[in-house]
Design goal:
- The protein has 2 domains: 2-196, no CATH class; 204-349, Histidine kinase-like ATPase, C-terminal domain (Heat Shock Protein 90), CATH 3.30.565.
- Helices cover 59% and strands 12% of the residues.
- It is built from 11 helices and 7 strands.
- The protein has helices at 2-8, 10-22, 31-50, 52-73, 78-97, 104-133, 140-163, 172-199, 209-226, 246-263, 317-327; strands at residues 204-208, 230-233, 241-245, 269-276, 280-286, 331-337, 341-349.
- β4 and β5 form a beta hairpin.
Amino acid sequence: MLHEFLFANRAAILERARAKVAARLAPRATAEEIQNGIPLFLDELILSLRDTHTSSLSMRESATQHGADLLKKGFTVAQVVHDYGGVCQAVTELAEEASALISADEFHTLSQCFDDAIAQAVTEYSRQRDQSISDESTERMGELAHEFRNALGVAMLSFQTLRTGSVGLDGSTSALLGRSLKRLSLLIDSSLAHLRLKVGVREPARVSLREFIEEVEIGATMEANGRDLTLAVTPTDPGVDVLVDRQLLAGAVANLLHNAFKFTRRHGHVSLKASSTEERVIIEVADECGGLPPGKADELFLPFEQRSPDRSGLGLGLSISRKSVEADGGQLRVRDVPGVGCVFTIDLPRLPPGEGDRRV
């Protein structure tokens, strides 16, 4: 069994791993990292291989702590990959030299453990970097530059890890790459919306509600599947139009869906529903975030306000989304469903037949 091999050869593996980490040119390894960090990770790995169900959480927690410590010590996020990679190489080399009988399934589990640990540590590092710059006194352009740099840095690091072939395309590192790219896309959309609202540039046009929801559903379904969530989209009646800036409305709805996916528990449900009366059009996004503390609903739309321990992002999305909807003559509200989640509602004027300059 692999965990027995690791336990029996713990000292030899540590010696090799420490040598590999110590030989790293940049960033230079610290004595604490070599003496304490590497043994901790190896011991958690042995426990995880022995009993995946009871120890995987402990391993993820140690990886999360490692990512947080990196930021405090001033190291780059690449250090965590080098540390874990050093342990992985030491295990593989020693197993080959000893001709150890290790099954393909055990090697797969080993690879998955490294994959999960790297992704968890990188995520925590990125989260704390984001939190450290989420201060209202920081200039908007500086915040945005940090946001782009962090998201792009995580995406590049994930891609480089995948290129080594040490982790699979269907693992945590691949998922982390996908989330980083999605975050970059949202940042771009949010920035463009913020800029257009600030300078007063709008392009209102007649938009078919049915076609709009169908287009939104395509991308949203892919994101929901990637997060192990179920997205339910209610069919929309034909012949219902609104006069809006399509890009601003699309950005607002995309942000609501992204937040719903982000805060809904795994294997949970998110719904997208559009309905209409003779005068109004209603678009609702419902999540399963567990609900909000009393009196906190309106605070969600304040700049830099966030509603979860997950602090990725600067908390500007909902504020910009509300301004985008208001620019089209509508309202964005939230209703708390205690113990279940939130329902975000976009309320827009319905465009009577024949009105509006053009249809898109």
